[in-house]
Design a protein that fits this description.
Layout (H helix, E strand, L loop, with lengths): L3 H10 L3 H15 L4 E2 L8 H4 L7 E5 L24 H13 L12 H4 L3 E5 L4 E2 L11 H15 L4 E5 L1 H5 L10 E5 L16 H11 L14
Length: about 220
């Protein structure tokens, strides 16, 4: 179930023309047998785990995985039993060097992070099967801009981790006196070697949280689920 503060935001946005047009287009595509990921009930999954004022870390990606059964509404995460995608393989590689004692799990489900206050958000929340960025510019960017604005205004202080150009655009208005902004290349194989590896965003996030008397994120994941 969507957390109450996020539900208020959703209710406000749902009255706006851009959002109604967005929903209409996605509904039309789904009804014409175009495969859209994630499934409808999982589109807002990121908002089921942590409410606005409880967010400690935002990890912002681009759009959902476009392979069958991969996306489940948490950025970079895949459902249990699904092969770990290349971007997440690289995230695990960075964790191995950044977080002492990190053991690479045999799965790609990041819900353990979400339950601790990590908002795993994409800038676009749906995608057509096998067509990356196919739902860019449908209106999701406006919605997620509002999400970032709400966090900027009403969260007392959190860490924004922005990977890739799409995510970094969202960071321009964030109040860096109140929040920490960590920006770097996307972890995909195309860009990870341009500075994602060695960025130490996970340990930097925990250092900032500790310095602000907020409980750290346990970045370790269960080996199997």
């Amino acid at each position: 179930m969507i957390k109450p503060q996020w539900q208020q935001l959703l209710n406000r946005e749902a009255k706006k023309d851009y959002y109604q047009n967005l929903v209409s287009e996605i509904t039309k595509q789904r009804s014409s047998d175009i495969a859209i990921f994630p499934a409808g009930k999982l589109v807002f999954n990121a908002f089921n785990h942590v409410d606005l004022t409880d967010v400690k870390v935002v990890i912002l990606g681009q759009d959902p995985y476009h392979g069958k059964d991969q996306a489940h509404g948490l950025a970079f995460s895949v459902q249990p039993g699904i092969k770990v995608p290349p971007s997440l393989v690289n995230i695990y590689k960075e964790l191995n060097t950044d977080i002492e004692g990190f053991n690479t799990p045999k799965h790609g489900c990041l819900s353990h992070w979400a339950e601790q206050g990590v908002l795993l958000l994409n800038t676009v929340l749906t995608v057509q099967q096998a067509h990356a960025h196919s739902h860019a510019k449908l209106g999701w960017e406006t919605f997620t801009e509002q999400v970032i604005n709400e966090l900027n205004e009403h969260n007392s202080g959190c860490v924004f981790i922005l990977w890739g150009a799409h995510a970094q655009k969202k960071g321009k208005k964030i109040n860096q006196e109140k929040h920490l902004v960590l920006a770097g290349p996307h972890p995909s194989p195309l860009s990870a070697y341009r500075g994602f590896f060695g960025c130490q965003h996970f340990s930097q996030a925990n250092t900032w949280l500790t310095n602000h008397e907020i409980k750290q994120i346990n970045w370790h994941l269960p080996i199997e689920i």
